[in-house]
Write a structure and sequence with these properties.
single chain; 122 residues; mainly alpha; 7 helices; 0% strand; elongated
């Protein structure tokens, strides 16, 4: 499928709408708006970033961290810092510090990490 001018306009409108919902702290409406994007075209990183922010506001930290990690890998350099800040906040919220410390220590000693830990380390 080709990404045409009308698709471009449609995606930009939905991204703007989802961003507005996030400013109003309405994450479910933002997620619903982002689900409506059928052809992401060159906006995949921005969609992943906004989806991650919405999931973070909805307190779904593990899912948010995955979306933000995807966004941080492919987002333009000037926005990477912001994506990594949100990502680190989600990782901090999703794992309690003693559990994360034990997992990290176990991984360094040669133990197999849990699937959750592996998702954040890739």
């Amino acid at each position: 499928m080709n990404f045409e001018r009308s698709d471009f306009i449609r995606v930009v409108k939905r991204l703007t709408e989802a961003s507005g919902y996030l400013d109003l702290e309405m994450p479910q409406q933002a997620l619903e708006t982002l689900r409506g994007i059928r052809i992401p075209g060159p906006f995949e990183a921005q969609i992943a970033f906004l989806r991650g922010k919405a999931l973070q506001q909805a307190k779904q930290f593990e899912d948010a961290a995955v979306c933000l990690a995807v966004a941080a890998k492919s987002i333009p350099p000037e926005y990477k810092k912001m994506a990594f800040e949100y990502l680190s906040e989600c990782v901090r919220e999703s794992c309690n510090p003693p559990q994360l410390a034990l997992l990290t220590f176990g991984v360094y000693r040669g133990a197999e990490p849990s699937p959750t830990f592996q998702r954040f380390m890739q």
